[in-house]
Specification:
The longest helix has 17 residues, at 16-32. The protein has a domain at 3-96: Alpha-Beta Plaits (2-Layer Sandwich). Strands 2-3-1-4 form a four-stranded antiparallel beta sheet. By secondary structure, the protein is α+β, with helices and mostly antiparallel strands. The chain has helices spanning 16-32, 69-81, 102-116; strands spanning 3-11, 36-52, 55-66, 85-93. The chain is built from three helices and four strands; from the N terminus they run E-H-E-E-H-E-H.
Length: 162
């Protein structure tokens, strides 16, 4: 049977429970028509690049599907009829990706970065000029000005004619 990745977007004002019910409904349709859903991922509410039916955000859901094309045609027909589904996209793939999808890895990576304190939310680290980064071109001796304090004095700047 062919393999597919199917992503659909649900309205932002739909609750998480409504999204799970829609997911279960679509999953049942696929299984009823002889297919199976290998993996389901809820990516959460994400901002959209542009408004879709007056929505600026949407719930994203991913299915990894192994089903005949008739099952996919039926699920897409049901999604077109549903007022809760804003968009959907189905892509045929050669094999399903093992482990979490790229979107879930990104969420984990962002969460880990914020926990370590390297995200934008960490404001108590000081400004970027507070850190010692070594000698910079602007810190070298030029036009007779001495280098900034704390830097090596033995550096001779660019050759100048006198």
């Amino acid at each position: 049977m062919p393999l597919y990745e199917h992503v659909f977007l649900t309205r932002q004002d739909a609750s998480a429970q409504q999204v799970e019910e829609l997911t279960a409904q679509f999953k049942a349709i696929i299984e009823q028509m002889g297919g199976k859903v290998a993996k389901t991922e809820q990516w959460g509410v994400k901002s959209l690049s542009y408004r879709l039916r007056k929505n600026r955000k949407a719930h994203f859901t991913l299915f990894n599907i192994e089903a005949p094309s008739a099952a996919l045609n039926e699920i897409e027909r049901q999604q077109r009829l549903s007022e809760d589904v804003l968009r959907y996209l189905t892509v045929r793939v050669h094999e399903h990706e093992e482990g979490p999808s790229a979107m879930m890895r990104k969420v984990d990576r962002d969460r880990e970065r914020d926990d370590r304190g390297f995200g934008f939310r960490d404001r108590d680290r000081g400004g970027f000029r507070d850190r010692d980064r070594g000698e910079h071109r602007r810190d070298r001796e030029r036009d007779g000005r001495p280098p900034r304090e704390g830097y090596e004095e033995s550096f001779s700047g660019p050759a100048t004619e006198e």
